[in-house]
Amino acid sequence: MILLVLGGNGFIGAHVMDALLADGYTVRASGRKPSFKYIHLEQTKYYFGEFSDTHKLSEALNGGDVVIHLISTTVRSTSNLGPVVDVQNNLINTLHLLQLMVSCKIPRIIYVSSGGAVYGSPQYYQCRRIICWPC
Predict the structure, then answer these.
(1) Mean pLDDT confidence for 96-107
(2) Which of 70, 77, 74, 104 is nearest to 86 (CA)?
(3) How far apart, in whole angstroms, are the C-alpha atoms of residue 101 and residue 62?
(4) Interstrand relation of 66-69 and 108-111 (parallel, antiparallel or unpaired)
(5) How far is the CA of 133 from the CAs of 1, 27, 108, 122, 126, in angstroms?
(6) Fewer C-beta within 10 Å: the chain N or C terminus?
(7) What pLDDT digit, counting tens, does each position of 63-99 carry?
(8) How many folded domains does the chain comprise?
(9) Burial label, 106 (beta-carbon count in 10 A; 0-12, 13-18, 19+)
(10) To the nearest 10°, the Cα dihedral for 29, 32, 36, 41?
């Protein structure tokens, strides 16, 4: 199983990658730029670029099985000041991601929110360590 961690160089992403690699998964990472503090060069294929770069994103998705989406440019204190930019950077880019996932035949996405952007109780989940797969 090949997992693509979007935001793999961030604080949360690096720890998710640590757990996935420890469990023996094949992991790819996508991030804006290299961060040598969190980089797993020996075990991971990295794709660097902006979330809006659909060509680079398509390259990273090719042949993958699951996407773990950790990217967000939303800061609760400033998102209302620039709602168009917020929607463009997060929602529109995520819609492009979903379209690419369909074209690459990747059926699963794990969307992680640490800033209160997702509300409500999940309708279903089955947890295995830190990863929750749809039934």
Answers:
(1) 96
(2) 74
(3) 9
(4) parallel
(5) 13, 16, 8, 12, 6
(6) C
(7) 999 999 999 877 666 677 788 888 888 889 999 999 9
(8) 1
(9) buried
(10) 30
Rounded Cα distance between 126 and 81, Å, is 37
Mean pLDDT of 12-18: 87
CATH number of the CATH domain containing 11: 3.40.50.720
Residue 17 has pLDDT above 80, yes or no: yes
Tokens standing for 8? 């793999």
123: how many CB neighbours lie within 10 A of its CB? 7
**Residue 70 structural domain:** 2-133
Q: Looking at residue 135, what is its pLDDT?
A: 41
Helix 54-61 with 93-103: angle, nearest 10 deg: 40
Question: Count of alpha carbons within 13 Å of 58, Cβ hemisphere only?
Answer: 9
